[in-house]
Design goal:
The two termini are about 40 Å apart. The protein has three domains: about 1-30 and about 50-60, no CATH class; about 80-185 and about 200-215, Jelly Rolls (Sandwich); about 230-350, Jelly Rolls (Sandwich). A hairpin with a 2-residue loop joins strand 15 (about 235) and strand 16. The protein is globular. By secondary structure, the protein is mostly beta strands. It contains three helices and 24 strands.
């Protein structure tokens, strides 16, 4: 009975667990080369890859990959966004709004201020691409975020920010879907939104503490310079952020004894066959999406049913659910960083059809 219940639960989730089948067809460890130590800069096992130990075989129900609904697209290029908003200093563009996250790309000129606010029960993350943003956060010392910064505002925490410095700030702002905002009554009331009225309510709140890898402010380039870990820097409910760092030229990696880090298959080589988006390759994630902000260098994304895309710093790549995909670093020099983002810690489900 226990096996039958386990089998039924798994079917409801879209995965058939082989352990519930007769013993002669249970999952066996994948045959292949012996496991090698993870290269420097690679994410820890059990977060964005295997769960540790030998690979296992599983069944899953896979839907058609490469299905995008607006505003999602395989690649949002920063250069295209800048053209779309030519002549505008302050703008906001919705780039992701799926079943888990609400994400905008933003620009603001120096002197722009966002009044104090709090998000009820949900965290917020800012990935700063350019310029300077000064954050004032309840219970924390103020921080100034610049290129390479990731700012993690905890749920039920009052915060405000101002764009400082001498140039426009560019940032990606990440919220869980259906996030809610309230404003302290000690401040001037906000403007009412269409179809709503501003009313005054009362409740108490308690500022949570940062735990685990979470912190208010992380800067990618400062961390690389100190040879400190860069993976899994935000692990909040519905927001997981993990920079994936690699060098095409291993000699440039001063922190990992010449290891290349997370570069995937690296740049395309002369004689490589044309990419076939209708083949089986790479890996997928069951029912959830993974997307990436290129924080440094150049990144290639190959997506099922969609094609091959080349991204540079400031661009955003997005893999739809249940979609074969594979990523690679391409910058001939310097670090290539694709900061992987999703609603949950995810498992890479590798293909078993002989693809890369």
């Amino acid at each position: 009975m226990a096996n039958l219940r386990q089998h039924a639960i798994a079917l409801a989730a879209g995965v058939v667990i082989l352990a519930s089948l007769p013993p002669m067809v249970r999952a066996q460890p994948a045959q292949g080369p012996a496991a090698q130590p993870a290269p420097a800069g690679a994410p820890p096992q059990g977060r964005r890859g295997g769960r540790g130990g030998p690979a296992e075989f599983w069944y899953m129900n896979k839907t058609k990959g490469g299905v995008y609904s607006a505003p999602m697209r395989p690649l949002w290029k920063l250069s295209d966004l800048m053209r779309m908003h030519t002549g505008q200093n302050n703008w906001r563009e919705q780039i992701i709004k799926d079943n888990l996250q609400d994400v905008t790309y933003n620009s603001a000129s120096p002197g722009t201020k966002v009044i104090p606010r709090m998000h009820m029960e949900t965290a917020t993350a800012f990935v700063v691409m350019k310029g300077e943003m000064h954050f004032t956060v309840e219970g924390q010392q103020p921080v100034t975020a610049t290129r390479g910064s990731i700012v993690n505002i905890l749920n039920d925490t009052i915060y405000s920010y101002e764009v400082t410095g001498g140039q426009n700030a560019l940032w990606v702002e990440i919220h869980p879907l259906w996030y809610q905002t309230v404003y302290p009554a000690s401040e001037p009331p906000p403007p009412s939104l269409p179809g709503s009225d501003v009313v005054k309510v009362s409740f108490t709140h308690r500022v949570p503490a940062y735990t685990g890898n979470n912190r208010l402010h992380f800067n990618l380039f400062d961390t690389i310079a100190k040879c400190e870990p860069v993976a899994n820097v935000v692990e909040e409910d519905h927001i997981n952020i993990s920079p994936l760092l690699g060098w095409v030229n291993p000699a440039e990696n001063k922190c990992g004894a010449g290891g290349s880090g997370n570069i995937g298959s690296g740049p395309l080589k002369p004689g490589d066959p044309p990419f076939n988006p209708n083949s089986t390759f790479g890996h997928l994630h069951l029912g959830v999406v993974e997307w990436w902000i290129v924080q440094s260098g150049q990144i290639r994304g190959q997506f099922e049913g969609t094609g091959e895309f080349h991204a540079v710093e400031g661009d955003v790549l997005y893999a739809a659910p249940n979609m074969w995909h594979q990523m690679a670093a391409e910058a001939p020099s310097g670090p290539s960083v694709r900061t992987a983002i999703g609603g949950y810690p995810i498992t890479n489900m590798g293909n078993t059809a002989g693809g890369n």
